[in-house]
């Protein structure tokens, strides 16, 4: 992964974007960008025209997409949008729109700086594209006066995946990863119900940095419903593995929902207490269920060993709900899982 700070503009002749436009015109409009530079141009040549910023990105909670744009002559049925994807291109969601107007004049007389928040997609694998579409009466042509011009796209507080590997595990419940030395990785999983099943959103990310090439991380299958949660994980070998708590809401909402989460050693155990740093890796952060989704799987690394011992319990607590509420009088919700010794 790498921190994403480069400027995306048309001076590279489109090498940093994927052209999804009609072949009747060029995506690159020379001399029509900011300061008379080149710009990306989307014209109403078909009902939907797009270009995609090449790569997969991981926004932080304060991430934004910045760009300058100018919309020419357009009607109220023509819409510009920035769209985000979380399922490998199967579906796209608008996160910014600009709608034309029946004014018989250009909508923007000059380039305007825009800023689009990516906060609802924090710590997720996303792709982004710019789209221009119409649904009725519209201007025709491909020249700059009826086009949407975009220039100088950039990200703040966002990382980019520099290489991607997808591993199919079939019916297995675990997979292994052997990272290369001195590189940073994120691991994620998603369900495939059957061959040809539409792509699903990737689950929660687990970050991994390797100081040597001998580290191997195992992981359970990421649960997508409560019945798939393993509440009594086995300890595993000396390398340990990823175990999951499932945060779930009853139905999708129109706004993102987030909570703070944190593992802890139980204060009133029914058995032996698991110890953070010895039996499991202390984990904390903010979990966000995006718009339209119903769950978020929180990964916790179980630290295995070869010493016979009693089974030990630890808890996950969630608090500070944003975009939703807990039941009346409830400030913190906890779940307890027990690590089963298998030595």
Short recap of the structure:
With 343 residues, the chain is an all-beta fold. The chain contains no helices and 21 strands.
Largest sheet: 10 strands, antiparallel
Determine the N-to-C terminus distance. Answer: 36 Å
Number of strands: 21
Q: Which runs of at least 5 residues are low in confidence (pLDDT < 50)?
A: none
What proportion of the residues form beta strands (DSSP E)? Answer: 35-45%
CATH class designation of the largest domain = Mainly Beta
Order of helix and strand elements from N to C terminus? EEEEEEEEEEEEEEEEEEEEE
Our count of domains comes out at 2
Q: Helix/strand-derived class?
A: mainly beta
Give the mean pLDDT: 85
Let me know the CATH homologous superfamily of the largest domain. Answer: CalX-beta domain
What report would you give on this structure?
With 343 residues, the protein is mostly beta strands. It folds into two domains: 2-161, Jelly Rolls, CATH 2.60.120; 174-339, CalX-beta domain (Immunoglobulin-like, Sandwich). Helices cover 0% and strands 43% of the residues. Strands 1, 2, 3, 4, 5, 6, 7, 8, 9 and 10 form a ten-stranded antiparallel beta sheet that branches. The chain starts with a strand and ends with a strand. The mean pLDDT is 85.
